[in-house]
Amino acid sequence: KQEVTQIPAALSVPEGENLVLNCSFTDSAIYNLQWFRQDPGKGLTSLLLIQSSQREQTSGRLNASLDKSSGRSTLYIAASQPGDSATYLCAARTQGGSEKLVFGKGTKLTVNP
Amino acid sequence: GAGVSQSPSNKVTEKGKDVELRCDPISGHTALYWYRQSLGQGLEFLIYFQGNSAPDKSGLPSDRFSAERTGGSVSTLTIQRTQQEDSAVYLCASSLGRGREQYFGPGTRLTVT
Known about the structure:
The complex is a heterodimer.
Chain A: E1 4-7, E2 10-14, E3 19-25, E4 30-38, E5 44-51, E6 56-59, E7 62-67, E8 72-77, E9 86-94, E10 101-103, E11 107-112
Parallel strand pairs in A: 2-11
Antiparallel strand pairs in A: 1-3, 3-8, 4-5, 4-9, 6-7, 7-8, 9-10, 9-11
Chain B: E1 5-7, E2 10-13, E3 19-24, E4 31-38, E5 42-50, E6 65-69, E7 75-79, E8 88-95, E9 103-104, E10 108-112
Parallel strand pairs in B: 2-10
Antiparallel strand pairs in B: 1-3, 3-7, 4-5, 4-8, 6-7, 8-9, 8-10
């Protein structure tokens, strides 16, 4: 059974800092992994989708990496801004036919001006 | 273009009543998913529809929960005889198909009193 863990649960950084959010998963037979952000009281916004055959994906100031052998993914945010404050969730889709995403509980990021 | 829409945005109901939650996926998306987000459990998969195939109902927590998707587009999630533990945010997502990026709606916040 796939389990996804995100540590830390909360992170506070000053504006301008580069930071890394961590995601680990127990079953390395993943099909892909998706990173989302969630603003308070809102739905999820998809940030990056990284396929099992890929090592990383980039979008603007965001870079996601995937290491299946170690069961880890990271989301790197460059030059953080107060507008980046949100909860970041990672979710894994496991091989074997199921389309469901298994989510971590998220990292709540606060970027202080 | 328009994203995933859900209605109502908020629903308060009395214990024992039935409720229906609606999801309109992104036009052209053949796959539709329902998830539930509650304080203690995080985000959990409920059900997945893909075209005319039989839905994956493996995440439905009890037989009080059911969902249908009419005409391959709009979906309705029905909860019968609601219980207080059903209180949560119900999120709908859609995608272009198997293994593709999932896009989420804003959710329906259900409160059972």
